[in-house]
Amino acid sequence: MVILKSKAEIEAMRKAGRIVAAFHQELAGMIRPGVTTLEIESFAVRHLKEHGAKAYTIGYNGYPFATCASVNDVIAHGFPNGKPLQDGDIVTIDIVAQADGWIGDSAWCYAVGEVSEDARQLMRVTKECLDLGIANALVGNRIGDVMHVVQTHAEKHGYSVVRDLLGHAVGREMHEEPNYPHVGTPGKGFRLKEGMVLTIEPMINIGKAAMKIDADGWTARTVDGSLSAQYEHTIAITADGPIILTAQ
């Protein structure tokens, strides 16, 4: 069942969104060679506690961390660990805050030191895919209209879009209906309605779209070892256009 939010409920969701946005703003100054993703995890736990929020993902279907830390060929759901980030890495940090019973969900891809031109372009195009998806998330459009724009932009640059991990509605829970891939056909799929709160979170690979899951049961990585990047915002669909609840 799709749960539409009132204007008051969307306003209430801003708190969790602001906490997530503030985390990413501060994290940007931490990312450098030598930092570990476990250190980022510790910072995330402190940040959420200090701002009166909970780390929604700890214990979610057995997931043990407050963040997902996805380095280089890891697409999503990477476990934080004690391995130092290296110059030239890219890392996507995903965090979900729960504040006053509402969810804010946002992932951001960071360059570690000096990265290759290939990595930098992948990050740029992936962020553009996010921005284009949000710009087209308008009342009356179908999800296929939105995601066709995302898919077309990625593929125009020779990249592939991950199909097996989905965007989703957000509210009291992290995953509400509907769910949807970041590829689409114009005129197909559910119609966007005022009051929907959704994630736009394209995962874009330099190589093939296919992925595999590590033995930990969570870490999703590219089958061909190619780089993957992701950017994600939580947005509200309104009559006046999309509102980015996790805007930095």
User: How helix-rich are the residues, as a percent range?
Assistant: 25-40%
Structural class per helix/strand content? Answer: alpha+beta
Kindly state the number of beta strands.
15
Query: Tell me about the biggest sheet?
Result: 4 strands, antiparallel
Strand fraction: 25-35%
The chain-level mean pLDDT equals: 98
Gap between N and C termini: 30 Å
H/E series: HHEEEEEHHEEEEEEEEEE
Radius of gyration: 17 Å
Unreliable stretches (pLDDT < 50, length at least 5) are none
Shape verdict: globular
Oligomeric state of the chains in view: single chain
The helix tally amounts to: 4
Keywords:
248 residues, alpha+beta, four-stranded antiparallel sheet, three-stranded antiparallel sheet, 4 helices, globular
Summarize the structure.
The chain has 248 residues and is of the alpha+beta class. It has helices spanning 7-27, 37-50, 117-135, 143-156, and strands at residues 54-55, 67-71, 74-76, 90-99, 102-111, 160-161, 167-169, 176-180, 197-200, 203-205, 211-213, 220-222, 228-230, 233-236, 243-244. The protein is globular, with a radius of gyration of 17 Å.
